[in-house]
């Protein structure tokens, strides 16, 4: 797939010298979902705002579909849809008129068939004549997405789209995003829900203190950096790790009923066979053995802590 978004050495500084973006470079492929993770103040929203033309960069270069965001801002902006964090809608306006107005802002000709397709895709068609104030929080989020899609952009930014939305509606939103990807829309998602990124993203980007720490295929990232835990559950609890097992990288569970061993899945030897033999030699009786794969959240926390060091 070709790159639809090219970001080179993007910088943003404010009066007083604060650097919100410190030379971010990134290429995003057409039709992919990129999840951008980072703590509060990392620069996620500043990056999106700069690409979308809300904030002016102080350095660097950005192209959307080959259009420079400064020199050819109208063409660049017409390719972008933005779903902001805040729900800021006219409460007394009807859904259909709200979406129709957004389409008109981009100079697009009236096309009620296109708007119907978007509203149906977002399960909003039966609410088209409802006033915004009558909708639930989840439905209002859907209206924001409909507004962002009204001018048929090829790149969609979702800035914390499921903040404050319950679990069921979040899962619905994931399905919506998957449907948009199937239509060829490129999606850049910022989220605090790491399981959201783990569920739907093709690639993961991690940003902290205005710097992009990495961008990598989700599956490769988890395979490269993920670790596994082996939990050796004992038939009887113990008060401490036996002396004969002190050389092993073991920790005892809080209730003393299990020994926990962390190992690298990519290592040539995991050491599990030797460990289990030594556990048996120490006179401990196994009740069960359980393995757990480290999550994307564990990897994210480790990366951010390393970046802050």
TrEMBL record:
<keyword id="KW-0547">Nucleotide-binding</keyword>
<dbReference type="InterPro" id="IPR003593">
    <property type="entry name" value="AAA+_ATPase"/>
</dbReference>
<dbReference type="Pfam" id="PF00005">
    <property type="entry name" value="ABC_tran"/>
</dbReference>
<dbReference type="InterPro" id="IPR017871">
    <property type="entry name" value="ABC_transporter-like_CS"/>
</dbReference>
<keyword id="KW-0813">Transport</keyword>
<keyword id="KW-0067">ATP-binding</keyword>
<dbReference type="InterPro" id="IPR003439">
    <property type="entry name" value="ABC_transporter-like_ATP-bd"/>
</dbReference>
<feature type="domain" description="ABC transporter">
    <location>
        <begin position="5"/>
        <end position="234"/>
    </location>
</feature>
<dbReference type="GO" id="GO:0005524">
    <property type="term" value="F:ATP binding"/>
</dbReference>
<protein>
    <submittedName>
        <fullName>ABC transporter ATP-binding protein</fullName>
    </submittedName>
</protein>
<dbReference type="InterPro" id="IPR050763">
    <property type="entry name" value="ABC_transporter_ATP-binding"/>
</dbReference>
<dbReference type="InterPro" id="IPR027417">
    <property type="entry name" value="P-loop_NTPase"/>
</dbReference>
């Amino acid at each position: 797939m070709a790159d639809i978004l090219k970001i080179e050495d993007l910088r943003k500084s404010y009066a007083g010298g604060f650097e919100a973006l410190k030379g971010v470079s990134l290429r995003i492929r057409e039709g992919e979902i990129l999840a951008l993770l980072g703590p509060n103040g990392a620069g996620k929203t500043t990056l999106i705002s700069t690409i979308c033309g809300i904030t002016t960069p102080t350095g660097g270069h950005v192209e959307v579909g080959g259009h420079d965001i400064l020199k050819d801002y109208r063409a660049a902006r017409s390719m972008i849809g933005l779903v902001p964090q805040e729900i800021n809608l006219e409460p007394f306006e009807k859904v259909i008129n709200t979406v129709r107005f957004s389409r008109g802002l981009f100079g697009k000709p009236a096309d009620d068939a296109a708007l119907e397709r978007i509203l149906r895709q977002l399960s909003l068609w039966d609410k088209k004549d409802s006033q915004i104030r009558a909708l639930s929080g989840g439905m209002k989020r859907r209206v924001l997405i409909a507004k962002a899609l009204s001018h048929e952009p090829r790149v969609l930014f979702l800035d914390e789209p499921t903040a404050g939305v319950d679990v069921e509606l979040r899962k619905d939103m994931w399905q919506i995003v998957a449907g948009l990807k199937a239509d060829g829309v490129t999606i850049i998602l910022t989220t605090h829900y790491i399981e959201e990124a783990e569920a739907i993203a093709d690639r993961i980007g991690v940003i902290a203190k205005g710097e992009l720490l990495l961008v990598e295929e989700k599956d490769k990232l988890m395979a490269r950096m993920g670790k596994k835990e082996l939990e050796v559950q004992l038939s009887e609890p113990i008060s401490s790790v036996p002396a004969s097992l002190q050389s092993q990288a073991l920790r005892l569970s809080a209730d003393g009923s299990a020994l926990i061993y962390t190992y690298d899945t990519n290592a040539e030897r995991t050491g599990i066979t030797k460990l289990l033999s030594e556990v048996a030699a120490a006179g401990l009786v196994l009740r069960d053995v359980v393995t757990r794969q480290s999550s994307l959240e564990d990897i994210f926390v480790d990366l951010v802590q390393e970046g802050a060091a």
